[in-house]
Amino acid sequence: MVSQTFELYLIRHGVAAEAGDNYPDDTKRPLTSDGIQKLRREVKALVALDVVFDVILTSPLVRTRQTAETLAAGFREGPPIVNVAALAPGGAYSAIIDEISKQSHRRRHIAIVGHEPGIGELAGRRIGLRRPLEFKKGAVCRIDVTSLPPTGPGQLRWFVSPRVLRKIGK
User: Fold this and answer.
1) DSSP 104-124
2) What are the pLDDT digits (tens) for 112-165?
3) For residues 13 and 114, is the Cβ–Cβ distance under 8 A?
């Protein structure tokens, strides 16, 4: 049997409005207009790097959903977006892996949009670290795994800061 590779693209949401009086409900904080503009440049970079998403899994919070929508809009064939409750802050690792695994029968390029510290913890665990990777807002990493659910650590292929992506995407 030939081993199949799954490409997991872990992405932290873009720059969002500050928490506070304007947004007392953290789940409703939107991306800023600057945050959206920066993400659009990052998507141009991903397209230039021949990145493809078959599906985008996202936390249901407004800022992550907007990030997923901005990502999808930048591709010629916008991938479907799936809300995953487990990707919200405090979601259980096992529930996230279950949701990712549901995509395995038909999708090989899976984008996952989430929050810190959860997205960094997911990345760290997927590559066998005992500590999280630190994601800046808009950062993207690619981790390849040979099975879903993963049976062992995956391989970190790349981890790119938002600043570098924006320079590529100019």
Assistant:
1) TTT-SEEEEEE-TTHHHHHHH
2) 999 999 999 999 999 999 999 999 999 999 999 999 888 889 999 999 999 999
3) yes
Cα–Cα separations (whole angstroms), residue 132 to 20, 140, 154: 27, 14, 14
Nearest-5° Cα angle at 158, 74 to 67 = 30
Alpha-carbon gap, residue 120 to 103, rounded angstroms: 21
Q: Report percent pLDDT > 70 for the chain.
A: 98
How many CA atoms, within 13 angstroms, populate the side-chain half-sphere of residue 5? 9
Q: Which residue from 131, 161, 152, 158 is spatially nearest to 8, judged by alpha carbons?
A: 158
- Give pLDDT tens digits for 29-51: 999 999 999 999 999 999 999 99
